[in-house]
From TrEMBL:
<dbReference type="InterPro" id="IPR036770">
    <property type="entry name" value="Ankyrin_rpt-contain_sf"/>
</dbReference>
<feature type="repeat" description="ANK">
    <location>
        <begin position="299"/>
        <end position="331"/>
    </location>
</feature>
<keyword id="KW-0040">ANK repeat</keyword>
<feature type="repeat" description="ANK">
    <location>
        <begin position="265"/>
        <end position="298"/>
    </location>
</feature>
<keyword id="KW-0677">Repeat</keyword>
<protein>
    <submittedName>
        <fullName>Uncharacterized protein</fullName>
    </submittedName>
</protein>
<feature type="repeat" description="ANK">
    <location>
        <begin position="55"/>
        <end position="87"/>
    </location>
</feature>
<dbReference type="Pfam" id="PF12796">
    <property type="entry name" value="Ank_2"/>
</dbReference>
<dbReference type="InterPro" id="IPR002110">
    <property type="entry name" value="Ankyrin_rpt"/>
</dbReference>
Amino acid sequence: MRHYELKKFLEAKYKEWHELVPQLISGDMKKLAALIDAHHRREKMMASLRSRCVSGSTLLHTASFFGAIPVIKTLLSEGIDVNILDYKGATPLHRAKDAATVELLLEAGSNIDCEDHDGNTPLHVKCYGESGEPTDLECIEKMLMKEAPLNIRNNRDLMPIHCCAMQGRVDAIQALLFFDTEGSIKQNLEMENKKTPPSLLHLSVANDFLDCAKWLAGNKFEFKEKETDLLVHKILLEEVPCANRVETVRFLLQNDASVNPTYPGGNTALHLTAGLSNSSDLLELLLSFDADVDAMNDDLCSPLFYATQSNNLYAASLLLNHGANVRSRNLQGLTAFDFISDFEEWIECGYFSEEIKARLKAYSLKHARDLVRAITKKVKNQPPMTSQLPLGRSQPALPAIGGGHVPLMLPPIRRGATS
């Protein structure tokens, strides 16, 4: 073949596959079937059916993903290894999405124990599933009936049951436990390190699957030490997703989370909540569990300081109604009310008792008096005006006179200037 002919051949192949690959990725199985049938009939041969030509996946992986049973059978009849790996070390069984495809691949000898580059078996993948999609329970059960390993851990030290918890799949957890006739899953969980991996309950709460966490707790699964406190902290800092903060924190408190934890800087959960906007329901929850309203952080600030500093009027009223001390002072000698910027707003909001209103009015007068004193002191400390300097002492030069400005001192009138 001449150089020019080779160039044209390669350009045509590139154009063909450049158009074909996006169609295959989008699930056009008619195109895939036509491609494989042409090869099978020896009408248009491919160089290799084992090539990872579809964005790192082989044609068998692609057919398995979209459940193209006839294409899978044709590829297997062409001698393609059912355990061929894609660019992530996954087999077609890892990629299969429906029970019929899973069954076909297993009957063809697919390795149920095979691990990809992340250490995941096909059961790991199915237990995790697609985010927001229902559990593929039929696929999971077919794998379990073929004795898929229940306790293999991936590179993150997670078993398939951990993957279920991360996605809140109670039905998949129930299936795993049903097929675990020897109780090996719970035995493996009990033998885990105290810190890693996270408990099933932790994974469920951290991924905002509260119902799954409640089911696990009701079936004698437990948090690891300090996990509940860590989760409360992350929820308050909005570092984990939480559709219902109050119910989630309530669940954590009911499962031994401390209502008075100590965070960096000596802050408690009540400190953080008092400084948050739109968190009155969470504040009420903590107070209902007897959170310490006068807990001091490293700066000797109570939660009331955080409420006043963030102008959180309702939070301040809740703290005061639960007996917060208004007289306590921080390291600078200031009280919580010293951080209020608009006393009129606080007095007129309607949240406070007459006693607190009277105290707010007293603070307002005190701040006004302190302001007058500060201004007076500043005026007294001003340097004397130039016109008041003793005669005979050199006077500073006048600044240049700009348009529309009058000098502080007029220059002397020269003799004869008026004549």
